[in-house]
UniProtKB/TrEMBL annotation:
Organism this protein belongs to: Urbifossiella limnaea
Source superkingdom: Bacteria
GO MF annotation, one: 4 iron, 4 sulfur cluster binding
SUPFAM superfamilies for the chain: Aconitase iron-sulfur domain, LeuD/IlvD-like
InterPro entries for the chain: AcnA_IRP_Swivel, Acnase/IPM_dHydase_lsu_aba_1/3, Acoase/IPM_deHydtase_lsu_aba, Aconitase/3IPM_dehydase_swvl, Aconitase/IRP2, Aconitase_4Fe-4S_BS, Aconitase_4Fe-4S_dom, AconitaseA/IPMdHydase_ssu_swvl
Cofactor(s) needed for function: [4Fe-4S] cluster
Enzyme class, broadest EC rank: lyase
Enzyme Commission number: 4.2.1.3
PANTHER family: ACONITASE/IRON-RESPONSIVE ELEMENT FAMILY MEMBER
Pathway participation: Carbohydrate metabolism; tricarboxylic acid cycle; isocitrate from oxaloacetate: step 2/2
Protein name: Aconitate hydratase
Amino acid sequence: MPNSFGTLSTLPVGGKAYSVHRLAVLEQVHPQAKKLPFSLKVLLENLLRNENGLSVRKADIEALALWQPKAEPTTEIAYTPAHVLMQDFTGVPCVVDLAAMRDAMKALGGDPARINPLVPVELVIDHSVQVDDSGNPQAFANNTHLEYERNQERYQFLRWGQNAFRNFKVVPPETGIVHQVNLEYLARCVFVDEHGAAYPDTLVGTDSHTTMINGLGVLGWGVGGIEAEAAMLGQPVSMLIPQVIGFKLHGHLKEGATATDLVLTVTQMLRKKGVVGKFVEFYGPGLALLPLADRATIANMAPEYGATCGIFPVDAETLKFLRATGRPEELVVLAEAYYRDQGMFHDAATPEADYTDTLELDLGTVEPSLAGPTRPQDRVALKDVKKSFAEALPKLKAVKKPIPALPMTGPAVSDPVDVPGGVLKDGSVVIAAITSCTNTSNPSVMMAAGVLAKKAVARGLVSQPWVKTSLAPGSKVVTDYLTNAGVLPDLEKLRFHVVGYGCTTCIGNSGPLPDTVSEEIRVEQLVVSAVLSGNRNFEGRVHPEVRANYLASPPLVVAYALAGRIDIDWDTEPVGTGSDGLPVFLRDIWPTHEEVQTAIAGAIHQDSFSRIYGSVFEGDANWKALSVPSGNMFQWDAASTYIANPPYFVGMTATPPPVNEITGARVLALLGDSITTDHISPAGSIKKDSPAGKYLIERGVTPKDFNQYGARRGHHDVMVRGTFANVRLKNQLVPGVEGGFTRHLPDGEHTTIFEASTAYQAAGVPLLVIGGKEYGSGSSRDWAAKGTNLLGVKAVLAESYERIHRSNLVGMGVLPLQFRTGESAASLGLTGEEIYDIKGLVDGLKVNFAGAAKELAVHAVRADGTRVEFYAVCRIDTPQEVLYYLHGGILPYVLRQLLATR
C-alpha cells in the first residue's frame, strides 16, 4: 500500500499495539480536514487505509480532505466497508451466487473451498414470518410452524451455507430483527482485523434500514444485492463524496413525548429540508441526554427522510450502551481510546464541524404525534388526528378500485372473530401492531406500552374485538425485560401476544384479517385503519384492505387498540369504560417518564444480552431439525422452485474472451422517463397467468403456494420471467398496453417480454433496451440488473441513469449508454423497430477509456433500409468498471482473480 501521507502508525491499548492510520498526520498537511464532519472522517480513514493507486488514489484522499461543504458532489471515491449485513429476502440470491461460484471454480480446475466472503458477512433471517395467527398464546408457535413450512428449502440452503462458507454467519429465524440484532450484538463500533489493524466499524446492508446502526456511530447504509456481493467479495463500493447536513439537538423531551414522536418530527423536518443523497449528522448538547436507543430510532428512519445515513458520533453514551449489551470490556476500552486518538470522540469540548447546511431542534418542543395516513413524513399531532383523518377521508374514499382479498400462502389459523355487521365504520382500527425495527429496539417506548397496558387492565379495559393485535419484538431481550418488569401478562390480556421475532406488519406480512372483518370492509367499501409502530405506511403496503395507515409509538398502538378507531379526540373522548362503570381517558392510563424509567431500571440486565446472544447462531429445535446437505459444494435440486444454480458462469474460461462489438441488435423494450427498478425487477405477488406463474404451475406448484417473488429470489428461472413484467410498465412497442409485453421483430408478433427474449436468444440476436430520463431510479434491486442480463440484453440506452442501477448494469456485464444532452429516442425518430450496431466499443476498451466522457457510434437501420446515425456516451465510468465489463461482470472478475492467485 502506498501510504502516501505517512499516516500508518500504532496505537497501544491494554497491552496490545494496534495498527492505525492517524488522521492527525494528514491534518498537518491539510489542516481543514480537522473540521470534517464525523462521518467524513470515517470515510477519510477508509481511503487512507485502502489506498492502492487504482481504486483509491492519493488524489481521492486529498479531494476528501479538502472537502468543500457547499459544492455539488462530483468526485467519486471507493468506499470499502468492513463487513456486510443481510436479511434473508435479499441475502439468499447472494449466497446462491457464492455457491454457483464454487461450481465454476471447480470446473476451471481451481479449489472451490477458496470461494468465501472476503469480509465478514452476517445474515439474519427476519423477513419471512407472517402474522397468520395473533391474539392468543399459541400465535407464536403457529406462525413459526407456518414459516418453516413455507420456507423449508430456503432455510435448508442457508443452513448449508452457514456450515460451508468461512466468514459467513446466519442468525436463524425467530431470533430478532436484523437491525436490532446488529445493534445489540453484531456491530463492533471499532473493528479489529486478523492483522491487528484497528479502524471504525463500517458496513453496507441489503436492507434500507441498515442505517439504524448509525445510532452507534457506525457508518453504513442499505445497498442492492449486487453492491453487497461486490463488497463481500472484497470490491469497493463506488460513491460520490456527499454533502453533509448537520442537525443540532438541544434540550430534552418533555413529559408525555416519546422517541417515536421525536423521530416523526425529525423525519418531517428533514423531508421538508430536502436531504436525498446526503449524509445527515446529529450533534449538539442534546446528544448527552439522548439514550442510544433513541438515537438508533432516529437513525433507522434515514430512508424515510431521504438521507443516505443519519449518523451520531461516538461518545460516552456509546460506551455505556456497549457495556450494557454485554460487549467485551476490551472492545469498549479500545473504542474509547481509538476515537479519542483520532479526534472523533464527541463531548462538550468538541468543536463544531463544517456542514453543508444545518437544522436545529429543541427536544422540549416535541409533542405526541402520529404519521399518516399514507406517508411517514406526514406527521400529525396527536390532538389533531381526528380532524386530519376527516380531512383525508374524501380522498381515501375516492379510490374506487375494488379492494382485493389477501392472497394466502397457507391456512389462516386465527380463531374466528364475531363482529356483527354495522359495527365497523370509516376510521375503525382493524390492525394494531407493535412491529418493526424502528421502535422494537427502544426500551423506553416498549416499556411505555407495557406500563400503559398494566394501567388499562387495572381499570378493566379491553382491546376491541375487531382489532387484529400483535407484538413482534425486535429481539428476545425485549421479551426478557417485558417479563422482568411484569408487564407482558398485561399486554397479553389486551391480546398483544408475541407473534414472532421479525419484520411483520411493517413489510406487509400482516396476515389475513378475520373473514367477518374483511367481508364488511369489502361490502361497505370502508376506509379502515392500521396503527403500527413501524417506519413505512405507504399505500397498500401494510394490508391491501386497509387504506389509512398510521405510524405511532408502541403505547399509542395499545391505546388505539383499546379505542378501536382512529377518529377519536383523546382530550374529550374516553378510551373506554372501566370495570367501575366510569369513563377512562388516555391521560388516566398514560405512563409517566418516572414510571417507565423505574420499570426499565429494574428489568434490563446485562446478563440478558450475554445469555440470549451467547448461542445466537445455533437456533431453536426447528432450525436444528432441518435436513441439511453436507460438503463444500451445494447439491442443487433440479425440482426446486426456490433455489437454482444460476447460469452466470456457463461456459466460462480462465481468461476472459475478447469483447465483441454489438451488432444486429433488436429492441426488447422502448420505455419512457422514470422507469424505476420496481418496473424492472420482479416484486410482489406472482400472477397465475404470468410467465412465472405458468412456469410454477408446470412444475406442480399450485397458485396458493406461489409465495412472493421476494421469497423466490434464489431461483433465476422464476425471477427472469418476472423481469420487466410490472403491470404498470408501458412499452412503446405495444402502445396502449400495460404490463410485460412487447412485439417480436421482424414478424411483429405480440408476446411477453420473456417469451420474445427467449426467441431472440435462440436466434442469436442481441437485445437493447431504450429508456428516457432517470432510468433505474428507486430501490437498487439486484434483479433489475440480473434479470436484464438473463433476458439477453447487451446494452441499455437511456437519457440519464440512477447512479446505482448504472453501476449494477456494468456489474452484470450490460453496457450502459447515454444519449447526448438534448437527444432522445423521440428526437432521433427512433421507434424501436430498427436494427442496431454499436461501434467503437472494442477499441475504446483497449485504451481503458473510462473516467472521461467518451462516445460510441450507434447505427440504426429502419425496415425500409434508411439509417439513423448518432453518438452515445459510454457510461463505464471508472477503471475498475472497465475490468468488470471486460470480464463479463463482477462475479466472473472476482472468480478469475481468485483462480489466478491459487
